[in-house]
Amino acid sequence: xxxxxxxxxxxVRAITPQAIAWRRDIHARPELSNMEFRTSAMAxxxxxxxxxxxxxxxxxxxxxxxxxxxxxxxxxAVGLRMDLxxxxxxxxxxxxxxxxxxxxxxxxxxxxxxxxxHDVHTAIGLAAASVVANMRERLRGRVLFCFxxxxxxxxxxxxxxxxxxxxxxxxxxxxxxPDAMFTLHIDPNQPIGTAGELAFAxxxxxxxxxxxxxxxxxxxxxxxKPWTGTDTLLPGAQILQGLQNIVTRNVNPNTNQVVLTVxxxxxGTKYNVIADHTVLRGACRFTDYATREYLEDRVAxxxxxxAAAGNVTSRLTWDMHYPPNFNSAWLMExxxxxxxxxxxxxxxxxxxxxxxxxxxxxxxxxxxxxxxYALLSCAPDTGDPARVPGLHTxxxxxxxxxxxxxxxxMAAFALTYGMEMEA
Length: 423
Description:
By secondary structure, the protein is of the alpha/beta class.
């Protein structure tokens, strides 16, 4: 084990400039969920060039990639997950490689930005693949590099499984089912000066989430005579407010942390026309998974009740659901000492306030496979923490000093899982 560390560190130093270049290239050319054709092609081409034993493209609805590399001797299988998709957000960073991309999203044309760091995750995965391939004689067992689409949710009109669930159903994943899984996610809101540190703790670390769409249908008309039509905007606004009462009046905050947020309220066509159709889109996030059915029922009751009071027709659609993420205590006990040896003792923390609380569909892996989901700090080196733009914001800037540490973590997990500590 100890003899492996200098080689890993040398390999990471050598590949880091390329990893940063990959990250900037991907950042400048982001792609939305289930549309990650260029990014997935880049991943597949790279894995083939490295001499991977198997490279499978077109997975999980068309843009998933799984590469399999076998070590020099038999051993367990390890899975590494990298998410590919970007968000419909207009970038406002001023970076020289800032995205100017636009894309169709349902019936809209929207700006696209990697504001959740999947460009960083993908670049780290590509670099870790290089490290593992260059050290395959030291690898015991095999590694699955899983480049996964649609972590942010499916594209409009998508039917069936998506993202992690879809990738897990692929024959290659089933054939090489990992004994352990690992992923990391950047976090700009870690303490100032901690870029490159990994934060993770055993047990439940991420909220569950259920995303929803509410459609309200009424009757249009002239807004000078609202009594002649049936307005959908007013009950839409009342539903938005009413949903907040679920959190404040139906949830015990001592046992369940619930965040219910509507991110879109769209309705009407013109200022002087009664809106005959209004749409609300949002999500309910929660920590007590046993309350899922109750919370979803309460959302349905609020929507139906307010719609009925407003004399409009309502339709509630549950668009997606992610269970909570669970970090394996057993796997952490095995792997934390190894990660500390490669990254350094000071780079690993289990402080609760620094561990993940936002949902991620990596949770589907954790339900069936011992897994670790880690936050990788990309916080700035200096400045006011209150002014650091967070994930899913147009101003997100990644401290690229996190990238080599992420590569070390991925490579260390892949290369040392099958080893004994004293080796």
